[in-house]
Structure formats: structure tokens, C-alpha cells
Amino acid sequence: MTKMPNNFLWGGALAAHQFEGGWNQAGKGPSVVDVMTAGANGVPREITETVEPDKFHPNHKAIDFYHHYKDDIAMFAEMGLKCLRTSIAWSRIFPTGVEEEPNEAGLQFYDNVFDELLKHGIQPVITLSHFEMPLHLAREYGGFRNRKVIDFFVKFAEVCFNRYKDKVNYWLTFNEINNKMDVYNPIFLWTNSGVVVHEGENPREVMFQAGHHELVASALAVAKGKAINADFQIGAMVSHVPIYPYSSNPEDVMFAEAEMRERYFFPDVHVRGYYPNYVLKEFEREGYHIVFEDGDKEILRNGKVDYLGFSYYMSTTVKSDAQEKNDGTVVNGGMAKSVENPYIQSTDWGWAIDPTGLRYTLNRLYDRYQIPLFIVENGFGAIDTVEADGSINDNHRIEYLEAHMQAVKKAVNYDGVDVIGYTLWGIIDIVSFTTGEMKKRYGMIYVDRDNKGNGTMKRSKKDSFFWYKNIIETNGKEL
Ligand code: BGP
């Protein structure tokens, strides 16, 4: 039976704001996500003006990793993780984003976490910006719509690269930089870029301008990082949802292809170092005025990423003559003209379960870019039940993961795709990003905490904990 390649990075993935808690500890400033309330039963999360004490902001305490990190990391080690992907909360290091000097207590916290991981042989894989921009930059500068924010980000990146150069080798610049292409859902532009679209503005034009600044910021950070440690592997991170045509009708095929460009635009620039023609044509056609500065082309060319990280949860299917959904309603990934795929089941949150779509994605991305790929998010969000004896039987999660990991194995061992690793999203239960709830759980470790923030915070192992431990120990031989 075949295994995965030696050194394959089996791991778990998290984001600071969704699990750390300690939102105002040791000098940390509020971030864009700290002013978001929890949604409930389909009601979207609200972005409040500032932190409002009478409202529940679920990320403030999250699962309080801030005070449990030693015990949590010991559990990750017991599972055998080779790496842990997490982020450095930007506002822990620069509380408002504009300080001259970084916050030493914030830096020290990550030293403690990384040392603890390394002590257990777990390699940190670090995202620099996972929806954690200091609130001040969003409120006072308009986030990445303002070019000045590039400098603040690059300074933050440089501080992190210098401080952790001997502890971290794999970096990612912006988490899911492309999810803001869904401009009708305001939480994406807000969390990705610190941007609010005003009355009378064209949201897509605003999105492209902010996106341009982020692409420049990412490229500058890559170049800085490489100058600090030439061995760093610095990647981009995109959300990838493959889009299938509903039928063999050439109109459906062409429509699906055009929608795929919504997924490809950001990685095209990150990997190739220049803008693709289809976007330049759109700017011309739609009359978008996107400000590029002299030198931007060169910056993008000199800041190409080493690898492409991506999240994969689902596929979507489109039909060229379906009724357009551009009102913020999420149907299978929020794509315009999405329809049900008759061959695919969905999760309780309507996310299509499609393991073959992951193999398809790996092949398409590798054919397009020819650089190593890293699956930095994949997982199954579900409601878990604690049995009377304390056990948590999450067989659905195991089935989902097994099928997806088998797809990765085929892509690697049969198709020859170069895959660095696989980090399971939400290895321990955390606050869900889109809903702000705790009931949508991904973890292999259960955390006793509910949607309102009640619970003991006790950690318990789910059945999947033991299953994944065995997969890692045998390096995927049994998949
Ligand atoms: C991605 C984000 C994560 C995350 C995950 C699952 O978009 O990078 O931060 O949480 O999706 O989404 P959710 O938590 O809404 O189920």
C-alpha cells in the first residue's frame, strides 16, 4: 500500500481571532473582527462601530487558547501533528497599526507559542493576515483602500520575519485574499481588507483597488522576507471553489470558465507576478479607475510566491441561464447562478461535499502554476453531540476527511501533483468565521463552550482524534 511522501506536512489549521481569545490582553488592540457580533440561525454577523459592551462579540474569548496553549499544544502533539497553521494577530503586535515600535508583550506571546510547538516537534506555518487588521486602520484609514496601509502591513511583516526567522519557515501573506470577490457579502471586504463600501460606489471597483494594494503589500513582504532569510517559503492563500458547468451546453461551459476566473485572478498575480488580460479588459470595459503607481509592476514581478496555499471545502455548479443571485444569499459558495448539483450531497450549512473536486482542484492549480501546493484548510463543519459516557462519535467527519485525503493521495501518487502538506481546518473546535457560532464545529478536540459563550472550556477527544493520529502515524498508508 502506498504512503504519502516523506516529510508530508500533516497538520491542523486555526486563525488567531477564532481561537486565541485574550482580545485585549497584554496591550493587544481591537481588530476588525473584534467588532463583529455572532450571527444565529442564518442571521448574518453584524459589524458594530466599535466594541460594544452590551453586544456579544464571540471572538473576544473564543476558546481561550491564550491561557490554555500549553495543554492544547500537548494534545496536538499527542495526535502527532507535524505542523500547525495559525496566524499572528496583527493588532497584538501593532495595537493600532501605526505605532513606531511593536508591542513586546504580543511578540513574546508568539515566542512562547512557537517554542512550545517546536519543543513537541510541531512546525508553525504562519499566516500574517487572517482577518485581523487593527480596527484603527480600518476606521481611520479606510483599510486597504488606502495605499498607506501597505507600509503598515509591510512593517508588521518585517517585524515578524525578523523576530521569528529561526522558528518559522513556512509563511502565508493574506488568508483567502480572493473571498472578497463576493462583494455582496460585506463581511468579506471588511475582514479581508478593512473596507466598507459607501453609497454610490461600485463595490467591485473598490474591491479591485483594495485588492491591488494587498497584492503589492504581499509582493513587498515576500521580497523583504526572502532578504531576511533566503530559506523562507512564503506563499499566498486563496479560497478555492471549483466551478462546474451544469451541462455540456457550451454556454454553461463558457460561463463556468468565466466564473473560475473569479477564483484565479488573485493567485494569477501572486504566482505569475503580473495582471492577467481578462481583468485588464474588465477594467477597460467597465471603466474602472484603478490607481497603479509607477513601480508596482516591478514590485509584483519581484514578489512572486514560492507556493500556493488554498482552502477547499466544496465545489459549486453554475447554469448560464439560472436566475442570478447577487443579493448576498449564499448558495453553494455564493456564486452567481449557482444551482444544486444532482450528484453531490451537502453539509447542514449547504456546503457541497465533493472529495473528487479536491483532486480536480489540485490538478488544475498545478497545471496552471507549476509550483508546490499546500492544502491549508479543509474540514467538515457539523453539530457534535457529547454522549452520556462523554464520548463524541463524529463518524460523518471521519468519512468526509477520509474521502478528501484519499483524493489528495491520488493527486499526489497517481497524477504527480506536488503537495507540501494538508492542515485540517479547526483541529480544535473554534468560533466559526461566517456565523460567529460555536455550534458549527470542525475539531477533533471538542471544547465545552456554546453560542452564547457559556461552558467550562473543557477539552475532550472526539473519535476523529484517534483516527487522524493513526493516519499521521502511518503516513496515509491506510487511506
Ligand atoms: C475560511 C476561513 C476560516 C474559516 C473557514 C470555515 O473562509 O479562512 O477562517 O473559519 O473558512 O468557515 P466557517 O468557520 O464559517 O465554517
What name goes with the CATH superfamily? Glycosidases
Structural class: alpha/beta
User: What oligomeric arrangement do these chains adopt?
Assistant: single chain
Compute the number of structural domains.
Answer: 1
Range of strand content: 5-15%
Helical proportion, percent range: 25-40%
- Strand segment count: 13
CATH class: Alpha Beta
Care to describe what's here?
The chain has 479 residues and is α/β, with parallel strands linked by helices. It has one domain: TIM Barrel. Helices cover 38% and strands 13% of the residues. It contains 14 helices and 13 strands. It has an eight-stranded parallel barrel with strand order 1-2-3-4-5-7-10-11, surrounded by five helices. Strand 10 (373-377), helix 13 (395-413) and strand 11 form a beta-alpha-beta unit. Helix 6 (148-163) packs parallel to helix 8 and helix 12 (355-369) runs parallel beside helix 13 (395-413). The longest helix is centred in the middle third of the chain and has 26 residues, at 203-228. It starts with 8 loop residues before the first strand and ends in a 6-residue tail after the last helix. Residues 327-334 have low confidence and may be disordered. Residues 15, 175-176, 239, 311, 377, 381, 425, 432-435, 440 line the site of 6-O-phosphono-beta-D-galactopyranose. Keywords: Glycosidase, Hydrolase. This is 6-phospho-beta-glucosidase. Belongs to the glycosyl hydrolase 1 family. It comes from Paraliobacillus ryukyuensis.
